[in-house]
Amino acid sequence: MLSKGAAKKVTIYLNEDTQRHLGPLYESILSFLMNKGVAGATATRALAGFGAHRELHTPKIEVLAEHLPIRIEFIETAEKVDEILPTLYDMVTDGLIEVQDTNVVKIAMKEKRAAAAAEPHTRKAGTAKLMRIFLGEADRWHGEPLYEAIVKQLRMMEIAGATVYRGILGYGAKGHTHKQSFFHVVRDMPIMISVVESEEKLTPAASMVEGMIQDGLIVISEVEIVRLANSIPPEEDAIARIPGR
C-alpha cells in the first residue's frame, strides 16, 4: 500500500495506435496496473511529439492524428514497481519506460459519508499549546504574503489548524499606528495567526515560523482545550491521480 515517504515514479511513453491483443496498448497497461493493485495511474495524450523514429506526429496531419504520443504515469512503492516492471517491459515493444526516485508528501482520499443519521457528538479535553504570530499584512516571503506562506508551511507540517485574523487598528514595537479610514487604505494592517497544537508538533512549527519572520512577534502559552466533534469524519481532499499535479 502506498504511503508517505520514499517511492518510485514510473513513466511510460508510447504511441496511441500501438496495439496489444486487438486493443490499444495503453488500455492494456492501465488494466494490468489496476489488477495488480497499483494505487493509481493516469494516461495523457500529447498535442504533438516525435521519438526514435524521427517522425513528427501532430493532429494537424490527419494521417498522423491517431499516432500521437501517450504518456502513462503512476507512483508506487519500490517493492511493487520491482514486481510489475518485468511484465511492463514485455508489454512495451515500441516505446520507453522511465523509473525515478520520488517522495510522497501527502496521501488524502475522499471517503464516502455514511447515511445522514443523527450521531452524537464526541467530547475531547486536555492540554495543548497556543501559538500566536503577530506580523504585518505587507510582509512578504518569496513574493507572496508572509501570512499565506506561513499557513501553507503549517499545513505541510500537518498542524491541526490555523486561523488568520486581520486587525482594524494597532501598533507595534516601532510605535507606528496602523489603521484604515474611508479616505486612506493602509496595506500594512496588523495580522495575527492563531495555532493550537500539541507541544510535540508545535515546537518545530514555531522554529519554522521564527525562521520566516524578520519583524514580528511569536507568543506561546499553555491552554486547556475542549473539542466537540461529530462522529462522522469530515471529507478530505481527493487523492491526486496525476503525479506532480
Structural class estimated from helices and strands? alpha+beta
Order of helices and strands: EEEHEEHEEEEHEEEEHE
Report how far the terminal alpha carbons are from each other: 20 Å
Total number of beta strands: 14
Report mean pLDDT, rounded to a whole number. 80
Shape: elongated
Q: Determine Rg (CA atoms, Å).
A: 26 Å
CATH topology grouping of the largest domain: Alpha-Beta Plaits
What is the level-2 CATH architecture name of the largest domain? 2-Layer Sandwich
Helix content: 10-25%
* Biggest β-sheet description: 4 strands, antiparallel
Low-confidence stretches: 181-186, 234-245
Widest sheet: strand order? 4-5-1-6
Strand content: 35-45%
| CATH uppermost class of the largest domain | Alpha Beta
What's the tally of helices? 4
Number of domains: 2
Give a concise summary.
This protein is an alpha+beta fold and 245 residues long.
Structural write-up:
The chain is α+β, with helices and mostly antiparallel strands and 245 residues long. Helix content is 20%, strand content 37%. It is built from four helices and 14 strands. The protein has helices spanning 25-35, 78-91, 146-156, 199-212, and strands at residues 5-15, 19-20, 23-24, 41-45, 69-76, 96-104, 121-136, 140-141, 144-145, 162-166, 169-171, 177-179, 190-197, 217-230. Strands 4-5-1-6 form a four-stranded antiparallel β-sheet, with helices on one face. Strands 10-13-7-14 form a four-stranded antiparallel β-sheet, covered by helices on one side. A hairpin with a 2-residue loop joins β2 and β3 (23-24). α3 (146-156) runs antiparallel to α4. The longest helix has 14 residues, at 78-91. The protein starts with a strand and ends in a 15-residue tail after the last strand.
